[in-house]
Design a protein that fits this description.
The complex is a heterotrimer of chains A (371), B (359) and C (316).
Chain A (H helix, E strand, L loop, with lengths): L10 H13 L9 H4 L12 E7 L4 H14 L3 E6 L3 H9 L5 E4 L5 H10 L5 E15 L6 E4 L1 H9 L8 H6 L11 E5 L4 H13 L18 E3 L1 H11 L3 E6 L7 E7 L2 E3 L3 H9 L29 E9 L1 E2 L2 H15 L1 H11 L6 H13 L1 E2 L1
Helix pairs in contact in A: 3-12, 4-5, 11-13
Chain B lengths: L28 H19 L4 H24 L1 H35 L5 H5 L13 H32 L2 H14 L4 H16 L6 H25 L3 H9 L4 H29 L3 H7 L17 H10 L5 H33 L6
Chain C lengths: L9 H5 L4 H37 L10 H38 L2 H16 L2 H26 L17 H25 L3 H9 L4 H30 L2 H6 L19 H8 L6 H30 L8
The chains are: A alpha/beta (371), B mainly alpha (359), C mainly alpha (316).
Chain lengths: 371, 359, 316
C-alpha cells in the first residue's frame, strides 16, 4: 500500500530512488497487512485511495489506534494524519489539502463560511469524537488526593495561594495532613487546547479570582512553564510541591484533585467527562450535522467533571470525489463505533463517547455523500 | 575528571646552550604537583560540605595553582605561563567531555531498551502501544538527508570556491554577508518557505519528501559554504602558484590541487552540515508530514523521518507511556549512530583522497 | 564571468582562458548568485507573511499591546541565551582545539577530535531532553547558591528556580551545542598554521604557549571568529532544545536564574505556531523576521571586527 506508483518523479533522480528501493523491500510487519484485516466482517465493500487528515496533536495517540483498526478493515486505503496542530489542521482542510481536520476547537463563524465553500457549498460536520478529561495533578509527599473548589484552584494558579497549608486548601480537606510546602504552579509553555479549556474553566467558574480571558496561550506573565503534556508532567514529577493540569491519563503516581461541582467533589474519570459532554448545550446557529458544543463548565450535575478537552473531527457532508467520501465515511463510522472508541481509549486514555453522542454522530456519518 | 589526562606532555627538548643552563622541574613533577593540588582541593571541599562538583572545582583550581607557582619559582615566568596554559587547555578539554559523556550515557541508558531487531525491521504500520519500530523512519531520514546533501554540497562548495578563488568586490561581500545571515534562519521558517514554494508550484495538497530536502538545504547550504570557505582559504598560495607555473588551467588547479589539499577539512565541514540538519523536526513536519508505513520515494507523498518520529513518540505518548519513550530514545540513539557512521565515511574518503604529506 | 575578468591577482590574467575555465568559474558564480536568490525568496516570504502583523492595530496583536511589546522580551531572551552560550563556549572551544592540535599525544588526537565532533551529531531534541532531565536538576544547587551569594547582581537576583529550567541552564545547553561547531573549525584552522612559522618560533626558544600565541593564534583568528559566528547563528536560531528546557513566556528580565524567563524568538515560534491562526501566525512570522534582522546585525558587527585587521589567509 505504501509503495504507490502515482509519481511526480523527475527522471534524473529516479536512479537514486531506485537504488534505495532495491536495498529496502519494505518493513517486516507490512507485507502481510492485507491478510490481517478480519475485523469488519459485515463490511465487504473494498475501499482504496488516499485518506488524509491533519490537525490537533492531542489526538495523535488516539489517531494511531484508529488508524491501526481502520487499516485492518481497509488495508488498501492510504491513511495519514499529520499532527500539525489544530489551527494548521483547520487551515489545511479549508484549503482543500486534507480530507478531514482534527481540531481542539470548533470552527469559528468565518472559518465555517470558508469551510462550506470548500465543501462545494454544502454542509460541514463537526463531531466531538475525542473527549479527554483534564486533571489537576500535584506532587505532594503523603497526599494522594485533594478536594478543591474552583476558586481555590484559580488562587493556586494565580499565585494568590502560595503554600499547601493555606487555610483555603485545608478547609476542603479536613482529613489531609498538609505540609508547609511552597506551591509551584506549572503551566503549558506552548499554545494548546488543554490550556484553552483549563483557563476557560477557571474563567467561568471562578471569575472573581481568575479574571484573564481564556486563551490557548497561558495568559498570566511569569511562573514555571513547560512544553507539552510530557513537559509539565515531567516538571511536576521532579519538583516537590508542584501542581499542573494535564490529560488525566498521564497522572501516573501523582496526586489528583477532585474539583468542586455543585455540592460534591468529582474526580476526573472517563464516565464523568462523557457525562458533562453529553449534557452540554450545542453551539447555536450551526448546521444539521454540526455538533459543536459549548462545554458546560458551570455544571452542578452529579458526577459530571467539567474540565474536559473536546477535540473534533471536521469534514464535509458532500465531497467532490467518490473515493474521498467513501473513505471519510468508513473512517468516521469506525471512529465513533464502540470498538473504535474503546481502542482509542486503551491507547490514549481518552473517555469513550456516550451512546447518545454516538447516535447523533451516526446521522452525520450516514449523510456523507459524493456529488 | 581532568586528573586522568596528563596536564603536561613533555616539553620539546631544549638544547643546553653554552651560555646558561636552564633549571627545569623533573619530568613527573608537574603531574605530582597537580595531583597534590587536587587532593588538597578534595580535602578543602570535604571540610566545607562536600559535593562532587565542589571537589572537582577546588581540585582543578588548586592543582593548576600548584603547578603554576612551582614552575614560577623554579623555571621562571615564561615557562610558568606555558604550564599554566597547558593546565587550562587540558581543563577545557576535560570540561567539554563532561556533557558529552553525560549525554551519551543518557541516550544509551534510555535507548538500549528497544535497540533490537524489531526496531530495525518493523515500521509503525498498524502498531498500537508496544512493539513496532522505526524501519520506515530510518530509511526516510536517509533518503531525505541524502537528497538534501546532494542539493546543498554542490551549491555550497561551488559558492565557497567562488568566494575564495574567483570573487572580488561587491558581489563577494554580498554573498559572504548574506550566507552568514542565512545561518540565522529559524528552522521552522525554512520549512514554511519550502512549503510555500511547493504550494505555489504544485498546488495545495502536495507533501513530498523532496520538500523536506529543500527545507533542510536552506539550513544546510550556509553551513557548507561557511566551513568550506574557511578551509579553502587555508590552502597555501604557493601550491596554486606552482600549479599555474606548470601551465595548469585555473579550474584544473582548483579541482586537482586546491580541493584535494583541503579535502579533510571539506569532509569535516560537510559532516557538520549534515549533523546540523539531520535532527531537525519542525521543517520536516510541515513539509514531509508523518506516516506510519514505509515510503521510500521522495517524489511521491508523505514520508516518515526519525526526528519527527522521535519527537512525537516523546511528546505525544499514549497510555503505555514507557513503550513510546523507549522508541523515542532508541530513535535518538539511531540518529546519533547514523551521523557517526557518516562521519567515519567522510573521514575514510578524505584519507583516501588526501595527498600524501611529507611526514 | 565578465565581473571576474579583472581579478586582483595579476597571475590569473596571464593564464590562458579555456572553455573549462569559463564553465567552472561560471557555475561557481551561478551557485553564489543562486544562494542570494534563495535568501531573497526566504526574505520575500517572511516579509509578505509579516506585513499583516506589522500593519495590524496594536490591540489585535497577541498580547494586546502591539508588535513591539510582543517581540521585545523575545529579542532580549534570544540575545541573552545566545550571548551566554557564546561566552561559555568560545574559550572552551579554543582550548579544546588547541589541546587536540598541539597538546594531546599525536596518536589519540584524531580520536579526540572525532569524539568532540560527536557532540555536533546529537539532534537538538536530545539536547533538550538531556537539559531537562539531567542538566537542569543538576544545576538547582548552583541556582540557590548564586541567588544567595551573587544576588546583588541583577543577573542573579532570584528567587532561584526550583526546577533549574532557567535562562542560565539554556545558555549552558546552547554552549554545549555550539561547542563542536566552533572547536571543529578552530581545530581545522589551527592545524593548518604554517609549520615553518611554528618551527621558527620554537627554534628561537619560544615555549609551546609562546609559539601558539605568535604563530598559531594570529593565523587562526579569523577562522575562530568565523566559527564563533556560525555557533552564534545556531544559538540564536536554536528551536527545540530551548523550547523543551526553558520555562519561558515571561516579560523582559535580565534575571538568569528565576523560573520566569523571557522566551526566545525561535522557541516561541515552535511552541505557538502549531495552534496559531490568522494574525497569530503573521505575528509569529514577523518575530521570525526580527530574528533574521538580528542575525544580520550580529554578522555586520562580526565582519567589522574581522575586517579591522587584515585577513591572514593563504589565498590572499
Amino acid at each position: 500500500m505504501t509503495l504507490s506508483t502515482r509519481s511526480r518523479a523527475v527522471p534524473l533522480t529516479m536512479a537514486l530512488a531506485g537504488t534505495l528501493a532495491l536495498s529496502a523491500c519494505g518493513a517486516a510487519n507490512e507485507s502481510g497487512a492485507s491478510g490481517g484485516g478480519g475485523g469488519g466482517g459485515a463490511d465487504t465493500q473494498q475501499l482504496s485511495g488516499d485518506l488524509v487528515g491533519a490537525g490537533a496533536s492531542s489526538q495523535q495517540a488516539a489517531m494511531e489506534a484508529w488508524q491501526a483498526g481502520f487499516q485492518g478493515e481497509y488495508p488498501d486505503v492510504d491513511f495519514s494524519y499529520d499532527p500539525v496542530g489544530s489551527g494548521g489542521g483547520r487551515e489545511q482542510f479549508i484549503a482543500g489539502a486534507t480530507d478531514f481536520a482534527g481540531s481542539d476547537a470548533a470552527l469559528d463563524d468565518e472559518e465555517l463560511t470558508a469551510a462550506q465553500e470548500r465543501c462545494s457549498g454544502g454542509e460541514v460536520f463537526e463531531l466531538p469524537n475525542y473527549v479527554s478529561p483534564i486533571a489537576v495533578i500535584f506532587n505532594l509527599e503523603g497526599v494522594d488526593e485533594l478536594d478543591l473548589q474552583p476558586a481555590t484552584i484559580a488562587g493556586i494558579f494565580t499565585g494568590a495561594i502560595a503554600n499547601w497549608n493555606d487555610p483555603a486548601i485545608a478547609a476542603d480537606n479536613p482529613d489531609a495532613t498538609l505540609p508547609d510546602q511552597a506551591i509551584t504552579p506549572v503551566h503549558r509553555g506552548d499554545d494548546s487546547g488543554t490550556t484553552d479549556n483549563f483557563t476557560d474553566y477557571l474563567f467561568q467558574t471562578a471569575g472573581d479570582v481568575w479574571t484573564a480571558e481564556p486563551d490557548g496561550v497561558w495568559p498570566l506573565p511569569g511562573g514555571e512553564a513547560a512544553n507539552g503534556t510530557s513537559g509539565v508532567v515531567g516538571v511536576v514529577e521532579s519538583t516537590a510541591g508542584a501542581v499542573t493540569y494535564a490529560d488525566a491519563s498521564r497522572a501516573g503516581d501523582l496526586g489528583v484533585v477532585s474539583v468542586g461541582v455543585g455540592s460534591e467533589f468529582v474526580a476526573p474519570s472517563a464516565e464523568a467527562a462523557a457525562a458533562v459532554v453529553e449534557n452540554s448545550p450545542a453551539v447555536e446557529g450551526r448546521g444539521e450535522y454540526d455538533f459543536a458544543i459549548e462545554v458546560n463548565r458551570q455544571t452542578e450535575g452529579s458526577g459530571e467533571y467539567p474540565i474536559v478537552l473536546v477535540s473534533y473531527h471536521i469534514g464535509c457532508i458532500q465531497y467532490d470525489d467518490q473515493a474521498a467520501a467513501d473513505n471519510v465515511k468508513a473512517f468516521m463510522s469506525y471512529v465513533i463505533s464502540e470498538d473504535g472508541q474503546q481502542t482509542a481509549a486503551d491507547n490514549a486514555g481518552n473517555a469513550p463517547i456516550s451512546e447518545s453522542l454516538r447516535e447523533q454522530a451516526q446521522t452525520a456519518v450516514e449523510a456523507i455523500t459524493a456529488g | 575528571m581532568s586528573t586522568d589526562t596528563r596536564p603536561a606532555a613533555p616539553a620539546p627538548v631544549q638544547p643546553r646552550g653554552p651560555v646558561r643552563v636552564e633549571r627545569r622541574l623533573p619530568r613527573l613533577a608537574p603531574l605530582g604537583l597537580y595531583l597534590a593540588g587536587v587532593a588538597l582541593g578534595a580535602g578543602l571541599s570535604a571540610l566545607t560540605g562536600s559535593s562532587l562538583s565542589s571537589t572537582v572545582v577546588y581540585g582543578v583550581v588548586l592543582g593548576t595553582l600548584a603547578v603554576f607557582l612551582a614552575s614560577r619559582l623554579v623555571e621562571g615566568r615564561r615557562k610558568a605561563t606555558d604550564r599554566l596554559v597547558t593546565c587550562l587547555v587540558t581543563t577545557a578539554f576535560g570540561v567539554a567531555m563532561v556533557p558529552l559523556v553525560s549525554l551519551v550515557w543518557t541516550v544509551l541508558d534510555n535507548g538500549l531498551a528497544r535497540f533490537d531487531a524489531t526496531f530495525f525491521s518493523n515500521s509503525m504500520f498498524r502498531v498500537v502501544g508496544e512493539g513496532g519500530g522505526a524501519y520506515h523512519a530510518i530509511l526516510g531520514t536517509l533518503v531525505i538527508t541524502a537528497l538534501a546533501t546532494v542539493i546543498s554540497v554542490p551549491i555550497g562548495l561551488m559558492t565557497a570556491i567562488y568566494l575564495v578563488e574567483y570573487a572580488t568586490g561587491r558581489l563577494k561581500r554580498a554573498i559572504t554577508f548574506f550566507v552568514d545571515v542565512m545561518t540565522g534562519i529559524p528552522s521552522i521558517v525554512a520549512g514554511l518557505f519550502a512549503f510555500a514554494l511547493f504550494t505555489l508550484l504544485f498546488g495545495n495538497d502536495v507533501r513530498l519528501g523532496v520538500m523536506g530536502a529543500v527545507a533542510l538545504s536552506v539550513l544546510m547550504i550556509p553551513v557548507v559554504v561557511r566551513s568550506c570557505e574557511e578551509v579553502l582559504k587555508l590552502v597555501p598560495n604557493e601550491l596554486r602558484e606552482a600549479s599555474f607555473a606548470l601551465g595548469v588551467p585555473k579550474w584544473r588547479t582548483i579541482v586537482k590541487v586546491v580541493l584535494p589539499t583541503a579535502i579533510a577539512g571539506l569532509g569535516t565541514g560537510v559532516t557538520l552540515a549534515v549533523a546540523r540538519v539531520v535532527g531537525e523536526t519542525a521543517p520536516l513536519l510541515v513539509t514531509v508530514g508523518l506516516i506510519t508505513g514505509t515510503n521510500l520515494d521522495p517524489f511521491d507523498g508523505r514520508m516518515a523521518t526519525l526526528p519527527v518520529f522521535a519527537y512525537y513518540q516523546l511528546t505525544q505518548p499514549g497510555t503505555d507511556t514507557q513503550a513510546f519513550l523507549d522508541r523515542a530514545w532508541t530513535a535518538a540513539l539511531v540518529l546519533i549512530i547514523l551521523v557517526m557512521a557518516l562521519n567515519v565515511v567522510a573521514r575514510l574518503i578524505s584519507r583516501f583522497l588526501a595527498p600524501k604529506t611529507g611526514h | 564571468m565578465t565581473a571576474t575578468k579583472a581579478p586582483s591577482e595579476p597571475r590569473s590574467q596571464q593564464a590562458v582562458r579555456r572553455p573549462g575555465d569559463r564553465i567552472f568559474a561560471g557555475s561557481a558564480k551561478a551557485s553564489g548568485v543562486f544562494i542570494l536568490l534563495v535568501l531573497a525568496g526566504v526574505a520575500a516570504f517572511l516579509v509578505s507573511e509579516a506585513v499583516p502583523a506589522l500593519t495590524a492595530p496594536a490591540e489585535d496583536v497577541p498580547g494586546g499591546e502591539g508588535l513591539g511589546a510582543y517581540v521585545a522580551p523575545l529579542v532580549l531572551g534570544t540575545l541573552l541565551g545566545a550571548v551566554l552560550a557564546l561566552l561559555v563556549a568560545t574559550p572552551l572551544a579554543v582550548g579544546i582545539a588547541l589541546y587536540v592540535t598541539y597538546y594531546a599525544p599525536r596518536r589519540v588526537a584524531a580520536t579526540m577530535g572525532y569524539v568532540i565532533d560527536l557532540l555536533a551529531a546529537i539532534p537538538s531534541v536530545v539536547y533538550g531532553f538531556w537539559g531537562l532531565a539531567v542538566l537542569a536538576p543538576a544545576l538547582v544547587p548552583f541556582h540557590v547558591w548564586a541567588a544567595d551569594t551573587l544576588g546583588f547582581l541583577s543577573f542573579f537576583a532570584g528567587p532561584a528556580s526550583t526546577s533549574g529550567r532557567t535562562m542560565f541552564t539554556v545558555g549552558l545547553v546552547l554552549a554545549v551545542m555550539i561547542l563542536p561547531i566552533i572547536s571543529a573549525i578552530s581545530r581545522e584552522v589551527f592545524s593548518q598554521a604554517p609549520a615553518l612559522h611554528r618551527e621558527a618560533a620554537l627554534a628561537l626558544g619560544a615555549t609551546r604557549w609562546e609559539m601558539i600565541r605568535m604563530a598559531v593564534l594570529p593565523y587562526g583568528k579569523s577562522g575562530v571568529i568565523g566559527g564563533a559566528m556560525l555557533g552564534l547563528g545556531r544559538a540564536l536560531g536554536e528551536t527545540m532544545a530551548v523550547a523543551i528546557v526553558l520555562s519561558g513566556g515571561a516579560g523582559a528580565t535580565l534575571n538568569l536564574i528565576s523560573s520566569s524567563n523571557p522566551s526566545t524568538i525561535a522557541s516561541n515560534i515552535a511552541l505557538r505556531f502549531p495552534e496559531a491562526t490568522g494574525l497569530g501566525i503573521n505575528t509569529l512570522i514577523a518575530s521570525g523576521l526580527v530574528l533574521f534582522v538580528i542575525t544580520l546585525a550580529v554578522n555586520m558587527l562580526a565582519r567589522w571586527i574581522v575586517n579591522r585587521r587584515a585577513d591572514f589567509s593563504g589565498a590572499n
